[in-house]
Specification:
This protein has 430 residues and is of the alpha/beta class. It has three domains: 151 residues, Rossmann fold (3-Layer(aba) Sandwich), CATH 3.40.50; 203 residues, Nitrogenase molybdenum iron protein domain (Rossmann fold, 3-Layer(aba) Sandwich); 35 residues, no CATH class. The longest helix is centred in the first third of the chain and has 19 residues. The protein is globular and about 85 Å long. Pathway: Amino-acid biosynthesis; L-histidine biosynthesis; L-histidine from 5-phospho-alpha-D-ribose 1-diphosphate: step 9/9. Keywords: Amino-acid biosynthesis, Histidine biosynthesis, Metal-binding, NAD, Oxidoreductase, Zinc. Its EC number is 1.1.1.23.
Length: 430
Amino acid sequence: MAIPIVFASLSEPKSYQSFLKMAKADLSEATAKILPILAAVHLEGDTALRKFTNQFDGIALESITLDPQSIKTKIPNNVAEAFLVAKANIETFHKAQMRQDWSIKVDGNTLGIKYTPVPSLAVYAPGGTALYPSSVLMGTIPAIIAGVKDIQLVTPPQKEGLPEILIWLAQILGIKRIVTVGGAQGIAAAAYGTESVPKSEFIVGPGNVYVAAAKSYLSGQGLIGIDSPAGPSEVCIIADETANPMWIACDMLSQAEHGEDSSAILLTTSKMLAEAVSKELEIAFQIRPKRLAMKQKAIYENSGILVFSKMEECIAFSNLLAPEHLEIQTKDPYFEFASIEHAGSVFLGRYSPVAMGDYISGTNHILPTAGGSRIYSSLGVDTFLKRVTYQEVTKESLNKLYPYVKLMSELEGLDEEHGTSVKVRYEENI
């Protein structure tokens, strides 16, 4: 068996249409399963959280929330150093995103924008084999910079106790509490609030399909803000004949390592590169067998190599795909990057694998998936800032503009009150 290699053309949609659907996530089945859980948490609060934690995790909770500052932790020095370097890089990049209030004069009036943070945030951290402590940094640091005051960490309990790295991260980040409830019930606890868990206005972080379904559903109900609707992890790689096929194979497998539903797509104009990458994938399966079945399913069933006749078509297809991660490994990656319109995060050049952004470079790895980058952005400081517009109208401007307000309010049938609210001020001044 080998990864599919397709000779594609944008003028023949049948040659590539199936690849556009690979990374899409259907949450309908998961949503049906989590709705009773959400309803129970809403109605029963802590009682439901204890029941579901015992049912799904096999753990009888002594306490639903923990104060991370009250727990002693001892992290190996080399691990602490790695996370502290990542923390510093993430902070530097995200501090540069901070918005400034501003105002402008328009027709004699002062109009402006004041930025205010969302009041509270829950950062979800998966447990078990899907433990991603780096996501705690990614979800929390932009919020702190934005000025979010109340941040809680939501994570499933573990029979051997919470991972020490999560507690330590909560300590160094100043997270107020850890909610030891996972899955859809953990998301519901943060969205609705319970006797023990304060309500959060915003929820971010990766999770399984049930976590994704809960976030999407509750967001659709207007109960919470979320980073973006989540689907399986994905990478798209645009490469020419100068790229290293073994490196590309490694980058594709780094996404396949996330799960069997992950997607890795290579776009190239070189048949020789396509065949070489296919061979390198087979070699990798032989020499790196960890999670082999999962990686093979992701590569063989959800991934592919598309060979186009022109680099312009590779770029056009990538914009159609709107991938979560986009790598550009070409002779002049900035040239191709100039035409990229839709991508969660872009990695330019030979020495920029996705894993650098996942962990240490400083950009955020919480990204829109499943074509979401056509309308959503990567998580950042902006995610947690609201724009409050304001205006101060002068007496002179009101007098000048009232005739237009009169006409417009009459046209809309709102002149009796809308129009009058301006008219009474106008008449006072004439």
